[in-house]
Amino acid sequence: MYATVTKPLTFEEFLAWDDGSGREFELLDGIPVPLSEPNANHEDLIERLCTYLENHCQENDLPYVARQSKQVRLKTASPEKEKSRKADIVIFAREEWQRMKTSSSSAAAYIPPPGIIEVVSNNWKDDYLTKLAEYEDLGILEYIIIDYAAFGGIRFIGSPKQPTITIYQLEDGEYLPAKVFRGQDRIDSRLFPNIPLTAEQIFAMSR
């Protein structure tokens, strides 16, 4: 027996909604939209990187919590219906995560989190164009795009195409020109200063 949507859902209603299929969804104009299942490489990279970042935050007493596959409420203005993205990795403020631990509500980014990481798949335009605009509008301080299989367009990852990590950082409400990392380039992140990772070490998490 599958649940059906008879009217547009709010973000909170969507988090509590379940159609019984076991599939993952995002919210588009109040309507749940099913997502494609990630491949094994994509999933391994997300899980391993999220675990690494969580441990890094604890060991270095950074004020963040890394969690994978969490819903992020997007910015909407009346009369728009609510929207969300299910981000691959969400970097929550530790204080906000602790607040959610005292609540029975679903764990999600109800307010803009400091950072979001997306791992690119075949629908690469979503990550490099659509989500970039959405996360900038939302005020995400750092947006990291991991293109481990060089799916992206040449204008984003260069020619010849090669695995690339792209980092956008917010300044006065706008993303600065992208920082691009490949091979043995060491990652330069505002949220994770001095993190001892190269681009290749992150790509290797998918193998």
Please characterize this protein's 3D structure.
By secondary structure, the protein is α+β, with helices and mostly antiparallel strands. It has helices at residues 11-16, 40-59, 94-101, 124-138, 154-157, 199-203; strands at residues 25-28, 31-34, 64-73, 84-93, 115-119, 142-147, 164-171, 174-175, 179-181. The strands form 2 sheets. Strands 3, 4, 5, 6, 7, 8 and 9 form a 7-stranded mixed β-sheet that branches. A two-stranded antiparallel ribbon has the order 1-2. The longest helix has 20 residues, at 40-59. It is globular. The termini are far apart.
TL;DR of this structure?
The protein is an alpha+beta fold and 207 residues long.
SSE map:
Blueprint: H1 11-16, E1 25-28, E2 31-34, H2 40-59, E3 64-73, E4 84-93, H3 94-101, E5 115-119, H4 124-138, E6 142-147, H5 154-157, E7 164-171, E8 174-175, E9 179-181, H6 199-203
Parallel strand pairs: 5-6
Antiparallel strand pairs: 1-2, 3-4, 4-5, 6-7, 7-8, 7-9
Domain Putative restriction endonuclease: 11-198
Protein name: Putative restriction endonuclease domain-containing protein
Pfam family, one: Uma2
**Cα end-to-end separation:** 38 Å
Whole-number count of domains = 1
Order of helices and strands: HEEHEEHEHEHEEEH
The appropriate CATH architecture is Alpha-Beta Complex
Low-confidence stretches: none
- Tally of extended strands? 9
Largest sheet: 7 strands, mixed
> What best-fitting shape do the alpha-carbon axes yield?
globular
Proportion of residues in helical segments: 25-40%
Query: What is the CATH superfamily label?
Result: tt1808, chain A
SS-derived structural category: alpha+beta
Averaged pLDDT = 96
CATH topology: tt1808, chain A
The top-level CATH class is Alpha Beta
Radius of gyration: 17 Å
How many helices does DSSP assign?
6
Strand content: 25-35%
